[in-house]
TrEMBL record:
Residues 899-920 have a biased composition (Polar residues). Residues 894-920 are annotated as: Disordered. This is Protein PTHB1. Residues 435-519 form the PTHB1 GAE domain. It comes from Gryllus longicercus. The lineage of its organism: Eukaryota, Metazoa, Ecdysozoa, Arthropoda, Hexapoda.
Length: 953
């Protein structure tokens, strides 16, 4: 950072909302003896300034005056580059050359003296214009071929062609060899050659005579003779700008790279090189007479101006803007005034002053760091960041997008008969077309600014369908309404009623792409219809609440008057529309604060369970202490059944694909053999190949039909698995397991909804995620954390191990067992083992195993062996235990008597026999402990609740 900053002398702004680059400015003496600044924008505006240096009464410079703007004209084409030279034949004055995308024009700057006090009138007159057959990139003006007192024009195009014009006449065109992208181009008059930088980061020099000899006079030419460079220098980095320095006897080339500053002689040898410790932006070079010093000005990305004498830094100053170009101009008697311009058109004339910056950094206050307070503050900040990332991750992007586009979604509650073809309307089925409903969804787009490339997509979960998924609007300038219809498209259970509307567009002003996402819900009547409640159900779920139960008519008011639904009903049955399905019955308890759902299909209860909880929370929204809970065992067996069905369909799909590929290969082989026999000049018997071809074709058709049926079954099982998994996760959120510190990690591992791909399925991805949790945050011991078992995403052979992993993860989260607890108990376990070494042998030998008499309740310590999700876990809450496993009793009694022996006979002498007995005892305890862990993963039966119930439903 420099102590000094540049001082303003003359400042103006070249228009508004215009763009510029380093080729849009030039300094020349167009008329008279004073230098003028010519500026051309990409928007087609040409401005010519003649800065003045006037002082006021205080001796300070006045700066910009309106008279300093000599000319402002708007051309019809963008101005890519501005340069000056003697470009009109028979004239020694300086003309103005403007490069447009498809033309190059030469203008005369004319000043007419005014007869009144209004002053002089300036204008530009077109001398001539050359139309280009290719898109232009840059232009170079100079005395090509050694001519004197006039300049020629060379235009470099985007496809690597050099077009030469001798003033009003087109001369020739030549393509550069091995061209990919255009680069900087400069002309060296002493050697009459052009220097450029290729896409391979090589500095190449071509003589004008060689270019002229191998050039073509046809502008439509696309090739020519092979061109050889005069010399090549390997630079090794991309180039930002290149300048030519003309000495009395030779020329030099100064090249500004991304990391280095190079200076090459006109014969291609390196003169000097400077390593830059910053990122440069632009460059300007000049010679100081009469000493002949080469001065180089470099502007950095931090708006610092570096002044070098070759490789020596002489001065640095802070600029007030971020320039894209820097040059020099003479203002009246002031020579060497710096001219800088930004990409938005801020034009400044300044000089290097010695006015220091008045900013003084405040002194640093060094205080002792409190590590405990810092740790608490860090934890608090992490909680804030985590909460913000979860809730408001899209708030900033959506707030900016909502200012440009307003979206209004209206989902109609009126159900209409479906007017679209669905897979439910099978010709062989008895499903009535009017029995399949559909609902109307209206999306209103309100643009607050012109938008382009608007894409609206309606994403509905299967088995729902939408009349038109995607809508495209090329230009959105007024309020537009999009209407679609959502209906049941496939047979299967629905996990939830939510659907997404994704809107993407591009802003017309800046071309910034944005994406908006809205979530809405379809009405429940679109999915289910009412029917009498069934008192029997294979699967039952009970939801406990903290408020008295309410009538189901208040929770489901849209079904009042349909079937048996009345205003005082405390039971209702639901049946999925459009096909055969199981009845889901909902009951509200009359004497307690509980609700029960039961059905013969576990996945079918997912939608009604989530709707019941959502409507209860909405009904008791004003009650702050309202909660819903689920205290029964987690239904793992039902999830495992859905996993097995889905996995079996996936395996059958792979088998059918292989079978179809084999039969297709066989069909092609038979075709080739038949073709060979048909092409044979001598007729030969086809040896029943036609019969074999026909049979193979029939087998291919049968395999294709079987594969289509399998894909339908796969979609149905995928939907059932999604519903079962969604219901399981919902019940876990209502259970005490939700307070576990790693509960969110488990929910993330059990991804829902279920998605399959050709390479990997849901089972493989979820198995890897669950295994990772069991080895890290849910590990029981440190040894499990250090175990490095390779994880594979290949197709499973079976789901046995996968189901055990899920059961173990849910069991550890439900019971609150994780690695932290194990690490804390390691010390106590080691002390217990040390006590077991001092056990009295007589106490061990006198142990006896007795049975538990009937009516005696089991100790609560044995709760750890109950399998999660089993009916046994429910029954033991309401009925006493009748017996106990002999192995578990042995382990319990051994542990009790061992502790007694330790307390009573601590002075018993250890012998070799006691050590062997102790090893057997420890192995027995470890074996029984493994038995408990294996028992925890036993698949539970289907029924969740005991039949004995005191509630009145």
């Amino acid at each position: 950072m420099s102590l000094f900053k540049v001082r303003d002398l003359w400042v103006t702004n070249c228009g508004s909302d215009e763009s510029y680059d380093h080729k849009c400015i030039s300094v020349a003496k167009l008329s008279g003896s004073s230098e003028k600044i010519i500026v051309g924008s990409h928007n087609g505006f040409l401005r010519i300034y003649e800065p003045s240096y006037k002082k006021n009464e205080d001796g300070r410079a006045i700066g910009y005056r309106p008279n300093d703007l000599l000319l402002e004209v708007h051309l019809q084409q963008p101005i890519l580059q501005v340069c000056c030279g003697k470009l009109v034949s028979g004239s020694q004055s300086i003309q103005l050359c403007l490069l447009h995308p498809r033309s190059v024009a030469v203008y005369n700057f004319v000043t007419k003296s005014g007869a009144t006090e209004h002053g002089n009138q300036n204008q530009i007159l077109l001398a001539y214009e050359h139309q280009l057959r290719r898109s232009a990139f840059s232009v170079v003006v100079g005395p090509f071929g050694g001519v004197s007192h006039r300049d020629f024009i060379c235009v470099q195009t985007l496809d690597g062609a050099l077009c030469f014009f001798e003033q009003e006449t087109f001369t020739f065109i030549r393509f550069l060899p091995s061209f990919l992208l255009p680069g900087p181009l400069v002309f060296l008059p002493h050697t009459d050659s052009f220097v450029t930088v290729s896409s391979s980061w090589h500095v190449e020099c071509y003589r004008y005579q060689v270019l002229a000899e191998s050039g073509s006079s046809d502008q439509e030419a696309s090739s020519g003779r092979k061109l050889t460079a005069d010399w090549i220098y390997v630079l090794g980095e991309s180039v930002l700008d290149i300048k030519g320095i003309v000495w009395p006897s030779h020329s030099d080339v100064v090249i500004l790279g991304e990391k280095n500053l190079f200076c090459l002689r006109d014969n291609g040898t390196l003169k000097f090189m400077k390593r830059l410790e910053y990122k440069p932006h632009c460059l300007h070079c000049y010679i100081v007479e009469p000493d002949g010093k080469l001065m180089i000005l470099v502007v950095t990305d931090t708006d610092m101006l570096m002044v070098y004498e070759q490789t020596t830094l002489k001065w640095s100053a802070k600029l007030l803007i971020s320039p894209v170009v820097v040059t020099r101009v003479s203002i009246e008697n002031l020579h060497g005034v710096l001219v800088v311009m930004s990409d938005s058109g801020e034009l400044q004339c300044c000089y290097l002053g010695t006015e220091p910056s008045l900013f003084m950094p405040p002194p640093l206050e060094v205080t002792a760091l409190d590590y405990e307070e810092s740790r608490k503050e860090l934890l608090q900040l992490q909680k804030i960041i985590k909460a913000y990332s979860k809730e408001n991750s899209m708030s900033l992007a959506n707030s900016a997008a909502e200012k440009e586009l307003g979206l209004s979604v209206n989902v109609s509650n009126q159900i209409e008969p479906c007017a679209y073809s669905t897979q439910l309307l099978d010709p062989l089925s008895d499903v009535d077309k009017d029995a399949i409903p559909m609902c109307r969804v209206a999306l209103e787009l309100v643009p607050h600014a012109p938008l382009s490339k608007v894409q609206v997509s309606f994403i509905v979960p299967p088995p729902l369908g939408v009349s038109q998924v995607s809508h495209s609007i090329s230009s959105l300038c007024e309020v537009t309404q999009i209407i679609v219809f959502i209906y049941l498209n496939e047979p299967g259970d629905v996990a939830n009623l939510k659907f997404r509307i994704v809107t993407s567009y591009v802003t017309s002003t800046r071309g910034v792409p944005r994406v908006l996402q809205n979530v809405a819900q379809v009405p429940l009547k679109l999915i289910v219809t009412t029917c009498p409640a069934s008192k029997e159900g294979e699967h039952k779920i009970t939801i406990n609440t903290s408020q008295p139960s309410v009538s189901l008519a208040q929770l489901f008011p849209e079904f009042i008057g349909e079937g048996t639904m009345s205003g005082a009903s405390n039971s209702i049955g639901f049946l999925r529309c459009g096909g055969e399905s199981c009845i889901v019955s909902v009951f509200a308890a009359k004497t307690s604060q509980r609700y029960r759902l039961q059905s013969d299909s576990f996945p079918a209860m997912c939608l009604l369970t989530s709707q019941l909880i959502e409507r209860l929370q909405k009904h008791f929204a004003k009650s702050k202490d309202f909660t819903c809970s689920f205290s029964s065992a987690i239904p793992l067996q039902e999830l495992f059944v859905a996993i097995d069905c889905h996995f079996q369909c996936r395996r059958d799909s792979f088998i059918m694909q292989d079978q179809l590929n084999q039969r297709a290969t066989q069909y092609r082989v038979i075709q080739r053999r038949l073709l060979v026999k048909f092409k044979d000049k001598t007729p030969a018997p086809i040896t029943n190949l036609d019969v074999l071809l026909k049979n193979t074709y029939q087998m291919i058709r049968a395999s294709s039909e079987a594969f289509e049926e399998n894909q339908q079954d796969l979609a149905r099982t995928r939907s059932q698995l999604s519903c079962a998994l969604e219901l399981l996760l919902l019940l876990m959120r209502l259970s005490p397991a939700a307070s576990h510190p790693h509960f969110d990690d488990l929910l993330a591992a059990l991804s829902c909804p279920v998605n399959d791909s050709e390479e990997q399925g849901w089972e493989e991805v979820t198995n890897v995620a669950i295994s990772y949790l069991l080895r890290t945050c849910l590990a029981k011991t440190v040894k499990e954390q250090q175990r490095s078992t390779p994880l594979s995403l290949g197709l499973m052979k079976d789901t046995t191990r996968f189901k055990k992993h899920i059961a173990a993860a849910i069991d550890r989260v439900t019971r609150g067992t994780h690695s932290v607890d194990k690490v804390q108990t390691n010390h106590s376990e080691s002390s217990n083992k040390q006590q077991l070494v001092n056990i009295n042998i007589s106490a061990i030998s006198s142990m006896a195993i007795t049975t538990i008499p009937e009516g005696v309740e089991a100790a609560p310590e044995d709760d750890t062996i109950v399998p999660a999700g089993s009916q046994f876990a429910e029954n033991r809450k309401s009925a006493p235990m009748r017996g106990r496993s002999a192995n578990l009793l042995k382990a319990r009694k051994v542990k009790t008597e061992l502790n007694e022996g330790t307390n009573n006979d601590e002075s018993v002498e250890q012998t070799g026999e006691s050590e062997s007995v102790m090893e057997q005892t420890l192995s027995t305890l470890e074996r029984d402990k493994r038995f408990k862990e294996m028992a925890a993963t036993i698949e539970s039966p289907a029924e969740i609740f005991p039949e004995a119930d005191d509630d009145e439903w």
